[in-house]
Structures are given as structure tokens and as C-alpha cells.
Amino acid sequence: MDCLFCKIIAGDIPSKKVYENEYVYAFLDINPMAPVHILVVPKVHIASADEVSAENSAYVARIFEAIPQIAAEAGLANGYRVITNIGADGCQSVKHLHFHVLGGKQLPDQMA
Ligand code: AMP
Ligand code: ZN
């Protein structure tokens, strides 16, 4: 499958890994929108949050179990934001589920 994040997880495309376990891979965003900008992805191909189901939701749970540890290691004790973009209106550019972890400064108030 021609998926950028599947290739990153497989090590075929380099990334700056910050966390990994059996279910989850996390790496620095190549175009950071905040002082800390980490992408957290499942190690199976799920196209977006719109494709989460009873069959694969354990991966999402594992991601949210990992995020506090990832945030703590990134020094985000003052808070942070977790975002996932979905589809065209959500401006999702990579069609492999990913959660943006953003922080390291006070983020803009507005969500849209
Ligand atoms: P989205 O627009 O929500 O689909 O987010 C995709 C994110 O992937 C963007 O923030 C990009 O900067 C990031 N990105 C694209 N290619 C790479 C890459 N090779 N390594 C790390 N991050 C990437
Ligand atoms: Zn993928």
C-alpha cells in the first residue's frame, strides 16, 4: 500500500522517533506548527478516525494511553492539544490515522 506513514512505521522512510510500542509509533512532524509537534499513529493502517470500529479501536486506546507519557517526555507539563484531521473538509493530507500533539507555547484559542 502506498501510504507514507506505513512506510515510516516500517522504517522505509526516515523519521525522528520519540516513542514506540507494539501498537503505537510517534515521531516529530516534519513541518512543526508549534515548538512541540509530534504525530502519534497506530501501527496498522487505519485511514482516519472515521474508520475507527470495534475491530480496531484498541489501537486508539493504546494511542491515548501513550500520549501522556509522550507529552511528559516532551516537557508539556503546562498542557497541550491533541488534534486529528478527517477527510477533505478536515484538511487531512495523509490518509493514515494520526493524532497531532501540539504544545510548548500557549496555543490559539479558536478551533476553526
Ligand atoms: P494532516 O494534514 O492532519 O494529514 O497532517 C499530516 C502531517 O504530516 C502534517 O503536519 C505534515 O507536516 C506531516 N508530515 C508529512 N510528511 C511527513 C514526514 N515525512 N515526516 C514527518 N511528518 C510528516
Ligand atoms: Zn498507512
Q: How is the topology of this model organized?
A:
Layout: H1 4-10, E1 17-20, E2 24-28, E3 36-42, H2 57-73, E4 80-83, E5 99-103
Antiparallel strand pairs: 1-2, 2-3, 3-5, 4-5
Bound molecules: adenosine monophosphate (AMP) and zinc ion.
The site of zinc ion has 5 residues, from helix 1.
Question: At the fourth CATH level, what is the homologous superfamily?
Answer: HIT-like
Q: With helices defined by DSSP (H or I, 4 residues minimum), what is the helix count?
A: 2
Order of helices and strands: HEEEHEE
The percent of residues in helical segments reads: 10-25%
Largest sheet: 5 strands, antiparallel
Number of strands: 5
Intertermini distance: 32 Å
The CATH topology turns out to be HIT family, subunit A
Notes on the protein architecture:
This protein has 112 residues and is an alpha+beta fold. The chain has one domain (4-103): HIT family, subunit A (2-Layer Sandwich). It is built from 2 helices and 5 strands. It has helices at residues 4-10, 57-73, and strands spanning 17-20, 24-28, 36-42, 80-83, 99-103. The protein has a 5-stranded antiparallel beta sheet with strand order 1-2-3-5-4, covered by helices on one side. β2 and β3 (36-42) form a beta hairpin. The longest helix has 17 residues, at 57-73. The N and C termini lie far apart (32 Å). Zinc ion is lined by residues 3, 5-6, 45, 96.
Short description:
With about 110 residues, the chain is an alpha+beta fold.
List keywords for this structure.
about 110 residues; alpha+beta; HIT family, subunit A; 5 strands; about 20% helix; globular; binds adenosine monophosphate; binds zinc ion
